[in-house]
Amino acid sequence: MAERVSLAVTNLDDRLVPAALVDSTETPMTSMPPFKPSYALGSGFGSQSRVQVLDSDLKFRQDFLAFEAGFTGGVRTALADFNGDGVMDIAAAAGPGGGPHVRVYDGATTQDLFSGNPVLAIAPRLHFDEFVFDPKFAGGVTLTTADVTGNARPDLIVGAGASGGPHVKVYDGDTWELAMEFFAFETDFSGGVTVAAGDLSDDGKAEVVVGSGPGRTNGVAVFDLSEAGQISRFSPYGTSTMGLNVAVVEERIVVGPMSGLGNRVLHFDGTALFSGSAETVLGPVTIVAYDPGFTGGVFVASADVDLDGRDDLVVGPGAGGGPHIKAFDIDDGTLLDEFFRPRATAGDAWSRAGVPVGRA
Ligand SMILES: [Ca+2]
Ligand SMILES: [Ca+2]
Ligand SMILES: [Ca+2]
Questions:
Q1: Which ligand has an atom closest to residue 84 CA?
Q2: Is the pLDDT reported for residue 166 higher than 50?
């Protein structure tokens, strides 16, 4: 049963604009030819901030460290073409242990395929390079991309990670100004949030879907940030207090456990929240992502891995699992693809740190 309340969003256009970005007049040293990415992989806590982008043939097209080589808090990533040049750009958010650092790399000037060197050495162009919360906050950042403002250009959505408040911010991906911010759950909740987005109300503006971190009754909050906005909330796993990873795959709201119930991904009809009767929310449909004995949690994301024009569900394991990536058809649950991400270098230790998957 979904609860709906009206929503007032504070417009923050007049707030501080992020400080100067990296000089974009610099001549790129490399140029990335356009390709259609199918997988955007981050790295789990305890590993370097390695980001890997693969195409539908599982060919690695980009592979680089989003942050300094000494940072081992992992990274989350999501793709979108922010500058409209036809090449998907790469948003990267630092995992726990450092500051709440988010960078958006220009996809056309970012690549470091298997060279072993941090991409920072080749001076990629950055569209965005900011601490998105209090610089002293060390819980990590979750992120996704979607057009929230409705100008047909993608925006950047970030949420505070573990130990943070339920704080969500939307940065306009055209101007990089902070467009909106809100608290998705009780303001004194400190388990952090995960974020996803997609247009569920069919008005050309993406709704922001927020999952609660651990420590409260598990909750999904769906925010329509348009003028006619509403909030819908539900608890997909009953009274469990485990945290939730979230995604929007086409019209489905997908939730995966952070840990605990481990392997069971649920998805719901997100459009039912906006059809006039919240009681008609259908589902859930269950996809068993991994072996029932695995309790490390499941990361979830949307990407069109079979290039049929409809997004599919991509899952990655939480901590403790091997780097086993899978893709499912969201409509019938068919397993479309699965593979193990290779090690970055022989003997590296990150292969069981988990693989946060991102929108591609
Ligand atoms: Ca681009
Ligand atoms: Ca936009
Ligand atoms: Ca909408």
A1: 1
A2: yes
Q: What per-residue string of b and e applies to 51-66 under the rule 16 or more CB within 10 Å gives b?
A: bbbbbbeeebbbbbbb
Q: Sign (positive/negative) of CA torsion 346, 140, 208, 290? A: positive
CA distances to 128, 140, 306, 342 from 351, in Å:
29, 20, 25, 8
Distance 224 CA to ligand 3 centre (A): 6
Whole-number Å distance, alpha carbon 346 to ligand 2 midpoint, is 41
> Which ligand has the minimum distance to the alpha carbon of residue 151?
2
DSSP for 234-260, please give it.
Answer: E-TTTT----EEEEEETTEEEEEESSS
Q: Which ligand is nearest to the CA of 271?
A: 3
Task: Look up the pTM and report it.
Answer: 0.88
Burial 289-298 (b: 16+ CB within 10 A, else e): bbeeebbbbb
State the distance from the centre of ligand 2 to the C-alpha of 179, rounded, in angstroms.
10
Rounded Cα distance, 226 and 224, in Å = 6
Q: Which ligand is nearest to the CA of 34?
A: 1
pLDDT tens digit string along 177-191? 999 999 999 999 999
Q: If you average pLDDT over every residue of the chain, what do you get?
A: 86
